[in-house]
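G., the chain you wanted modeled:
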Amino acid sequence: MVGLLAVLSCGAEPYPVSEAFLIPRRSFVPAYLRLFESGELRQRVESALGALESCRLCPRDCGVDRLRDEVGVCKTGRHAFVSSYFAHFGEEDCLRGSRGSGTIFFSWCNLRCVFCQNYEVSWGGDGRATSPRELARMMLHLQGMGCHNINFVTPEHVVPEILEALLLAIEQGLRLPLVYNTGGYDSLESLQLMNAVVDVYMPDFKLWNVETARHYLRAPDYPEAARRAILEMHRQVGPLVFDENGLAVRGLLIRHLMMPGLAEETLQILQWIAHELGPDTYVNLMDQYNPAGKVTDTDYGEINRRITSKEYRVALEAARGSGLRRLDHRAAIRQVRFCQ
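Predicted structure as tokens:
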């Protein structure tokens, strides 16, 4: 410890972290263990599976009977589809550490982002139906590899399937923190099912305006749904907290992918985060937008480019100007590079 700061490396360049956001690893217990030991997790599984009968587990409210393999917007019936699972070293430093984030990529999605970087998975459904036992084995395999956490990517539409598999995995020794890595289009019903199950919520907050969301996400209610969901996530887990090795163990981490020509939306999102959640909210302001998916269509020509270094610098200054003081430290490294 250095005064009121600890200097954490997390396998990258060192950066200071206030002791207010530190918890010793020996003191950390995954949230789901208490729920499992009380017997409530088994009840959650039953409630979640029952909700599949007339599915309203995301804001689409399709109402289809997924227990009978009927499908709505997310194209997913009784069982989750998994595209891949592996130790991911491309996530934030506080998730990947030195041994990787144990990432499970679910196929399909309840959003229709025209710029999706994983278009073949989210739109094309690349992957295969996975039983609860198979999904549990994936979690345990990732733990056995030494991964620091289990990272569920695009879990919004498969919350019941995750809970069902989690119960089996815990019985066989799963003890890693759980990361809920979502596009932000989540229902309060699903988030209540995940309350005291998830350790780290990592939502995107993509767009602010209704018409922009309609055009690029095919979901005009996305901004409202994302604000509502992120507030609930913050209520459940609070600000992001690290262990002594710089690994995230509990809390909220918000991602915002900057997009070309949409600087005003970025500014509104950052101001909302600072005002509603507070300056201690951990934010990753991402600059890696790359045209993908359907962006080459003539309807989306205005976003058919990367963002500029100037656009990113302005956004980073706006984030700090709004009062946010916990930006992902790689953002500061990028700023130094851009200024050279």
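Residues 1-7, 9-15, 332-340 have pLDDT under 50 and may be disordered.

Shout if anything looks off.
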